[in-house]
Amino acid sequence: MLSALSVAEKARYIASPNPMVGAVIVKDNQIIGTGFTHKPGCDHAEIDAIKNVYKKFKNEASQKLNNSSIYVTLEPCSKQGRTPACTRAIIEEGIKEIYIGSKDPLQKGIEELKKAGLTVKSGLLEDKCNEFNRGFFSRIERQRPFVTCKIACSEDGGIGLTTGGDKWITSKKSREDVHKLRAASDAILTGVGTVLADNPRLTVRDKALSKLEGEIHPRRYVLDSSLRMKGNEHLLTDGLGTTIFCNDLKKVSYNKPPIKIIEAASESKRVSLQKVMDYLNKEECNTLMIEAGSKINTSFIASELIDEIIFYIAPVKLGKDRINFSEFESSFSKIGTIDLELKEISEIGPDKKLITKPVYS
Q1: Burial zone of 165 (CB within 10 Å; 0-12 exposed, 13-18 middle, 19+ buried)
Q2: If you average pLDDT over every residue of the chain, what do you get?
Q3: Which residues are CB-neighbours of 53 under 8 A, at least 6 positions away?
Q4: 292, pLDDT greater than 70
């Protein structure tokens, strides 16, 4: 199953909104085929692995597949969707054993395979497999994406200075890592304050990732309750499309494709975060990355909508004129009354990278 998880990594940037799945076919204790989920409408992991066996063994492939075993990180699909059901191919090829990591609440693959006489064992490395597709499971079970908040800051928690200055706090290596985070996210969200201050592109600028199949840039969303953007910002002029959430629709020059403006009003005259989550769910968004300022960070934290916070911490202090990453009294272990559980720490160039999980009471 560890091999199947390793193969599934190849699906990380291309599979969504489908889950990322890896499959390994074994015969006589030898791996004879591997596969992963490709972009929507293309082969799922099980079909990719079967085709891999045919590519390697050609005329002997059917014999190899007969009475073989398949290890797959997620329960095979049993329904016809953009592609045929994977269970049918597994049964037709004479595979006799299947080992499954996670169960898929949308499918009845285990039931169908058992009816066909296959030996089925599920729950292998289940926690690791569940974590691998945490975005998919979040959308299916919570009707919202898994939300990661990225914060680049100084040692004293500053994301900028009230006096202005250089917008880059962390190193080039950290910024390169952020592009990988963006590529692995279905969508990225920021606020109008960040747009007006920094004019970001919020795209993926990585040569290796740009060669992958499918669309590598995340969908871009802006919270702009009063529609304060002018129309000349990168997010509105680069042709890649941006969706803007506002509190009250009004006529603006840039309200034309590929720009969308969605009214998501709340009683507070600010954009309703719940309506934003509902919209993203309808758009089949599995993973959302927040790259914003203190106000947006605080709003999402207060609404208990952030599942993970990734800090990139530069070895500098910004001092008394700093803008803190949250309006709550905060540290790297606590935001207001919310504890942050440290999951992982690493070094990226001169910076530290902390992956933390908010613990909501």
Answers
A1: exposed
A2: 95
A3: 25, 32, 33, 61, 64, 65
A4: yes
Among 124, 114, 60, 121, residue whose Cα is nearest residue 90: 114
What sign does the dihedral 296-301-302-305 (CA atoms) show? positive
Q: Is the dihedral of CA 160, 164, 170, 173 positive or negative?
A: positive
Q: What is the dihedral of CA 87, 89, 93, 96, to 10 degrees?
A: -10
Tokens (6 digits) for 100: 């499954």
How confident is the model over 232-244, as pLDDT tens digits? Answer: 999 999 999 999 9
**Residue 120, exposed/middle/buried by CB under 10 A (0-12, 13-18, 19+)?**
middle
pLDDT given at position 213: 62
Q: Are 286 and 123 in contact (CB under 8 A)?
A: no
3-state SS class at 54: helix
> At a CB cut-off of 8 Å and minimum separation 6, what does 10 contact?
22, 36
Q: What pLDDT was estimated at residue 305?
A: 98
Q: Which of 18, 138, 132, 186 is nearest to 86 (CA)?
A: 18
> What are 220's strand-pairing partners?
188
At 178, is the secondary structure helix, strand, or coil? helix
Specify the range with the lowest mean pLDDT, choosing from 83-92, 203-212, 280-289: 203-212
- The H-or-E segment that residue 7 falls in is helix 2-8
Spot the catalytic one: 46, 75, 233, 291.
Answer: 46
The pLDDT of 321-338, averaged and rounded, is 93
Strand partners, 54: none
Closest by CA position to 154, among listed 329, 339, 323, 277? 323
Please state whether beta strands 338-348 and 351-359 pair in parallel, antiparallel, or not at all (unpaired): antiparallel
Angstrom distance (rounded) from CA 41 to CA 18: 10
Q: Nearest Cα to 36, choosing from 51, 27, 49?
A: 49
Residue recorded with tokens 């990719």: 48
Give me the numbers of helices (H) and strands (E) for the chain, helices first please: 12, 17
Please give the C-alpha separations between residue 26 and each of 207, 294, 307, in angstroms, as whole numbers.
Answer: 35, 51, 37
Active site includes 46? yes
